[in-house]
C-alpha cells in the first residue's frame, strides 16, 4: 500500500505537509471574495476546505449546492474538502444528524468535492454508511475529532485516530486544545506513535492555540500530513498565516534533506 494519497496535483502523506486554507464566508459573495484571494495566493495554498457551518444558508441543501458549485468553478484545480463542523466540535452551528448525513451525502455525490470530513462523534454504523457512499463516489473520507477543552492522554488520542482508521477513514484527524507544553508533547507523541504503527495511513493532527502552533509547523518531522493555515480569517485558534507557514515548512523540509 502506498504511504500517500494522491488527490489532484498533490500527494498527502509525503514531503512537506500540505497547506489547507479554510473558507469561512457567510454568503456567496464572501465565498467569491475568498476564492479570489486564494487564487491570488496560489503559491501558498495546496488545498481548500469549505467550512459549510459558517455559511448563512447551510440549512438549505439547494443553496449549499449552488454555493458549492460557485466555489468549484473558481477553484477547480485545487483539492476541496467539504466540512460541516458542528458546534460541539468547535463549529458554528448544530444541525440535526439526519441533515448532517444528507448534506455530506449530497456533497459526496456532487462530483465537486475531493474529500469529505466526517466527525467521529457519530455512531460507527452511521460513519460506515456515509463512508461507503463517499468511497462509491470516488471521494475520500477524513474522520475527525476535536476537543476544544483539553488534550486527552496520548493513549486516548492514538485510540481515537485508530478508530478513524478502523472505520475505513482515509485520513484520521484529531485537533486538541493544550493547557501546557506537555499537552503539546502528548499530541506530537500520539502522532509519532500512530505513524509508527500505521505508516501507510496519512493522518492530520494539531494542538490548537498559540502554545500548540509548533504542531502546525512540524508535521513533516512528527507525521502530520496536512496543516490548516489562515489566509484572511482563521477557522481555529493558533492557525498560522499561509506565507509564514510555507516558508517554515520549507525550512524544515530542507533541514530533513541534509
Ligand atoms: O478540523 C479542522 C482543523 C481546525 O480545527 C484547526 O485547528 O486548524 C480547522 C478546521 O477548519 C478544520 O476543519
Automatic annotation (TrEMBL):
<dbReference type="InterPro" id="IPR001381">
    <property type="entry name" value="DHquinase_I"/>
</dbReference>
<feature type="binding site">
    <location>
        <begin position="49"/>
        <end position="51"/>
    </location>
    <ligand>
        <name>3-dehydroquinate</name>
    </ligand>
</feature>
<feature type="active site" description="Schiff-base intermediate with substrate">
    <location>
        <position position="173"/>
    </location>
</feature>
<comment type="subunit">
    <text>Homodimer.</text>
</comment>
<keyword id="KW-0057">Aromatic amino acid biosynthesis</keyword>
<dbReference type="Pfam" id="PF01487">
    <property type="entry name" value="DHquinase_I"/>
</dbReference>
<protein>
    <recommendedName>
        <fullName>3-dehydroquinate dehydratase</fullName>
        <ecNumber>4.2.1.10</ecNumber>
    </recommendedName>
</protein>
<feature type="binding site">
    <location>
        <position position="216"/>
    </location>
    <ligand>
        <name>3-dehydroquinate</name>
    </ligand>
</feature>
<keyword id="KW-0028">Amino-acid biosynthesis</keyword>
<feature type="binding site">
    <location>
        <position position="239"/>
    </location>
    <ligand>
        <name>3-dehydroquinate</name>
    </ligand>
</feature>
<comment type="pathway">
    <text>Metabolic intermediate biosynthesis; chorismate biosynthesis; chorismate from D-erythrose 4-phosphate and phosphoenolpyruvate: step 3/7.</text>
</comment>
<dbReference type="GO" id="GO:0003855">
    <property type="term" value="F:3-dehydroquinate dehydratase activity"/>
</dbReference>
<feature type="binding site">
    <location>
        <position position="235"/>
    </location>
    <ligand>
        <name>3-dehydroquinate</name>
    </ligand>
</feature>
<feature type="active site" description="Proton donor/acceptor">
    <location>
        <position position="146"/>
    </location>
</feature>
<comment type="function">
    <text>Involved in the third step of the chorismate pathway, which leads to the biosynthesis of aromatic amino acids. Catalyzes the cis-dehydration of 3-dehydroquinate (DHQ) and introduces the first double bond of the aromatic ring to yield 3-dehydroshikimate.</text>
</comment>
<feature type="binding site">
    <location>
        <position position="85"/>
    </location>
    <ligand>
        <name>3-dehydroquinate</name>
    </ligand>
</feature>
<keyword id="KW-0456">Lyase</keyword>
<dbReference type="InterPro" id="IPR050146">
    <property type="entry name" value="Type-I_3-dehydroquinase"/>
</dbReference>
<keyword id="KW-0704">Schiff base</keyword>
<comment type="similarity">
    <text>Belongs to the type-I 3-dehydroquinase family.</text>
</comment>
<dbReference type="InterPro" id="IPR013785">
    <property type="entry name" value="Aldolase_TIM"/>
</dbReference>
Amino acid at each position: 500500500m502506498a504511504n500517500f494519497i494522491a488527490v489532484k496535483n498533490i500527494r498527502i502523506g509525503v514531503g512537506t505537509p500540505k497547506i489547507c486554507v479554510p473558507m469561512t464566508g457567510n454568503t456567496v459573495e464572501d465565498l467569491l471574495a475568498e476564492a479570489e484571494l486564494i487564487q491570488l495566493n496560489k503559491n501558498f495554498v495546496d488545498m481548500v476546505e469549505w467550512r459549510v457551518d459558517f455559511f448563512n444558508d447551510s440549512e438549505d441543501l439547494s443553496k449549499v449546492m449552488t454555493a458549492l458549485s460557485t466555489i468549484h468553478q473558481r477553484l477547480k484545480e485545487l483539492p476541496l474538502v467539504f466540512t460541516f463542523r458542528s458546534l460541539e466540535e468547535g463549529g458554528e452551528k448544530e444541525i440535526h444528524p439526519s441533515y448532517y448525513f444528507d448534506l455530506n451525502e449530497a456533497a459526496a455525490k456532487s462530483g465537486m468535492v475531493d474529500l469529505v470530513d466526517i466527525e467521529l462523534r457519530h455512531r460507527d454504523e452511521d460513519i460506515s454508511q456515509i463512508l461507503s457512499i463517499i468511497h462509491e463516489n470516488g471521494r475520500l473520507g477524513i474522520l475527525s475529532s476535536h476537543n476544544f477543552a483539553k488534550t486527552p492522554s496520548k493513549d486516548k488520542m492514538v485510540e481515537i485516530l485508530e478508530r478513524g482508521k478502523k472505520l475505513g477513514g482515509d485520513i484520521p484527524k484529531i485537533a486538541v486544545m493544550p493547557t501546557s507544553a506537555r499537552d503539546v508533547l502528548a499530541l506530537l507523541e500520539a502522532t509519532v506513535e500512530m505513524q509508527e504503527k500505521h505508516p501507510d495511513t496519512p493522518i492530520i493532527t494539531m494542538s490548537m492555540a498559540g502554545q500548540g502552533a509548533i504542531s502546525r509547523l512540524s508535521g513533516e518531522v512528527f507525521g502530520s500530513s496536512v496543516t490548516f493555515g489562515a489566509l484572511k480569517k482563521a477557522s481555529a485558534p493558533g492557525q498560522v498565516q499561509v506565507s509564514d507557514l510555507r516558508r517554515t515548512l520549507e525550512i524544515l523540509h530542507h533541514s530533513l534533506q541534509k
